[in-house]
Amino acid sequence: MSEKEAHADTKVNGAKNEEDRPKEAEVACLQDAEQRRDQGPQTRLYKRRWLIVFLFSSYSLCNSFQWIQYGIINNIFMHFYSVDAFTIDWMSMIYMLTYIPFIFPVAWLLDKKGLRVVALAATALNCAGTWVKVLSAKPDLFAVTFFGQFCCSLAQVFILGMPSRIASVWFGSEEVSTACSIGVFGNQLGIAIGFLVPPILVPNVEDKTELAYYISIMFYITAGVATLLFVLVIFVFQERPKLPPTQAQAVARSIPPEEYSYTASILRLLRNKPFILLIITYGLNVGCFYAVGTLLNRMIIEHYPGEEVNAGRIGLTIVIAGMVGSLICGVWLDRTKTYKQTTLAVYFMSLVGMIVYAATLNLGHLWVVFVTAGALGFFMTGYLPLGFEFAVELTYPECEGTSSGLLNCSAQVFGIIFTISQGKIIDTYGTLAGNIFLCVFLLIGTVMTGFIKSDLRRQNANRTAKAAETPDCLNSSTPSPIILQEEKM
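Structure (tokenized):
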């Protein structure tokens, strides 16, 4: 080989080596990324997570159905048990009152014993309450039916704080808000059925013997469903997956039990100013919803006498629209992570919906009430999962059950206050004044929501964990070969 040819061959080989160096560096970098992932906490999604959340939604449905089953046929139960309207209102308000003193011990139990124990307690109490009601279908047994309702209201304490907890323990970071919405979905669907079914199963008849027959049918159906769900929870419901679904959940699991104090957690939450604002605004919004749901029969009957069935259908419209709103909001949060902006927008639209509903209720056209009530429900009920998920973001790594419990406690307190106050205002000044009363507090809540600082701690934890696993040599344009695995049940 001549000197010139040798020189040319050396240049070609040198150029090839220069081309190969970036590829070799990229391969080494990717191998480094995989090694970091192997050394860090493993995460995995299990298909069983969908069974868990749907089973929870089912027993939440059964419980929330009973919250409104008396109130939506208020006049019928007044006649059957020979009690006044305010007494029947307490069949709904007992759900709110029971929650307040029991939420803290139940949240402690969720922290210490986990999801399965709380699920078993919830379904056992709900099942027991339904069978007590079966025994109460006689005109002189109002005290018995009230005790049955108390048992069901106690079961609710074990239910309301669980959607965000289940979502965090079982679901990935890109689906956690959707999962929370599905958990809330069951509660809303139960309320919807509670608005629809009792007016159909229990017609307004004068004969109390005949009325007792119809009421007992409703109670037996509820008891059968509650018993089936209790059995399913015993054999199907699982505490948590073997491997955590997200890096944030892996970090939360790594905290030793001896380093966690429930009292200290509560105190940290109460010092969290954005969360305190959310507690108040959530309570104002959901308290208004509780008042509207409890007093709906009285408001509709005042303007549309004899329309008990349509009052139930209007309640159904409110909740079905809210279920759609909940799912849309959950999917939207998973895609955009715009927690504060979405919460503020939905809160403001709840205020607008309440104003329109109040202004059109007395126009004399039921179809208008259906439309305005549906719009109100879409935003007011759709707000529920937003509050849960925003709270988890603001309070991470505190237990989701504790933050949700404080939100629900606020909602129950405001629910009792608003229901009693609006009921008295309606009796004295009419439905328009009662609804304006709620509009004022929704306006206050909207303004306060604007002052909540958006500190998304859970999202930041997930981003930090991912950044720690990714070497500096990998830029955003290099696709990561590491994916979240999904296992069979």
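The first strand starts at residue 44 and ends at 46. DSSP finds 19 helices and two strands in the chain.
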